[in-house]
User: What shape does this take?
Amino acid sequence: MVIFYCDGSVDGIFTAVYDAWASRLGHENVALRIGGQMNYELFAEYRKTGTDAGKAQKVARSVRRKMGLDAYQTIYQAALSKEPERADCIYRVLVRGMSASVTPYEARNVIWNLQNTDVCRLFELSRKTGNEAHRYLQFVRFRELENGVLFSEIQAENQVLPLVGDHFADRFPNEDFMIYDIGHNDCLIHGRQRPWFILRDTEPEKEVTGRSSEREAMMQQLWRGFCQSIAIEERKNLRLQQQFWPLKFRKWMTENPQEKDDGKCQKKDGGKYLDENCHLC
Assistant: This one.
């Protein structure tokens, strides 16, 4: 068994797919792994795959042409997942859909063959990543810095920034904004009337991001007051609230100013909340 291992980026996975396919060792004799997320196996040869944008583009272009845009979108979202088996799962699906013996009709329908274990797992990875990205479309909160840039922090499990960039660029085309993913050290940057891009393995300067504009505090206070004013005490349902507003998202949201450390309210010994006026309680 020859194992090709790569970094966890989409281009890295597609490059490993290209190298494994071009090795002509036989699809059953090769496997793909993510460097840093793999367990070493006995009697296996390991080959490191460097990320090559040209090879990745060739794989992406072939998938779109032979398997269709729907299949490419599913594979792309699965490549953004956090699961370590995503690279090998993508390779197995591409082998089924892009082999020479597969007809064009079969190639475009391979992605819907959920009876296959690899295809089913690919759908699971894609769905989880897409669902998390959809939630961040609702839960991202920007604050204005002194330099006028809108800044937001998230801590996503999967790599969701490539999936939310178009949404916020369309909503704020005339704004300079940044979304920093603490979990992956990635930063989505959008300039006014310019396309967005992502910087990998970077961290904004805390001295700059820690200084908000003068009107930011006032706007945050108004927003919290609005959320508190629309709350109905008699219809309070904490369990339902957590279902629609999970605790892991509250840490970075303006509506939850009291508990920035752990994202949930702390109780006293008597069972009462520290802030009896908190609209989250």
Q: What stands out?
A: The beta strands are 2-6, 30-34, 45-48, 143-144, 150-154, 177-181, 186-190, 197-199.
